[in-house]
Amino acid sequence: MNSGKRAGSRGGAAGVRRRGAPLAALNKRLVAKQRALEDMQRDAKVDFQARQTALLKDLGDKMNKVLLQYAEANHYTAIFILQPNLVAYLARAVNLTDALVKLYNQTYPYQPKAAETGK
């Protein structure tokens, strides 16, 4: 009876270490891949933010030119950029958004890049 217990527990701690070694290796690979994924996510986020900043700067520069052109052509003394949720009332006649968007689109018409057209 006693010899049966020993046969079933053959290997003892060494057997646990042998079985644990592949798991430890897999765990190490998993951790490395998780870190690599996190690094790629951080890099992608930084790249996205840089591209977004550049795009918004370009758009803002162009819109400012359009705004100046519109203000001078229509003899405006001042044009304010307001946050709509802070304005109690604004007459539609003084809202220049549609006119400025139309002028912007005329001045800077959309031209798809070769990658967008499939060429």
What would you say this structure looks like, in words?
With 119 residues, the protein is mainly alpha-helical. The chain has one domain. Helices cover 71% and strands 0% of the residues. Helix 2 (12-73) packs across helix 3 (97-107). The mean pLDDT is 83.
Annotate the secondary structure layout.
Elements: H1 2-8, H2 12-73, H3 97-107, H4 114-117
Helix pairs in contact: 2-3
Quaternary structure state of the chains depicted: single chain
Radius of gyration: 33 Å
Stretches where pLDDT falls below 50 for ≥5 residues? none
Largest sheet, strands/sense/barrel: none
- Please tally the β strands and state the result: 0
Kindly estimate the percentage of residues that lie in beta strands according to DSSP.
under 5%
> What level of helicity do the residues show?
over 70%
H and E order: HHHH
- Shape designation: elongated
Class by helix and strand content? mainly alpha
How many discrete structural domains? Answer: 1
Question: What is the number of helical segments per DSSP (H or I, 4+ residues)?
Answer: 4
- Mean residue pLDDT: 83
Q: Give the terminus-to-terminus CA distance.
A: 80 Å
Q: In summary, what is this structure?
A:
By secondary structure, the protein is mostly helical.
Key descriptive features of the protein:
mainly alpha; 0% strand; single chain; 119 residues; 71% helix; 4 helices
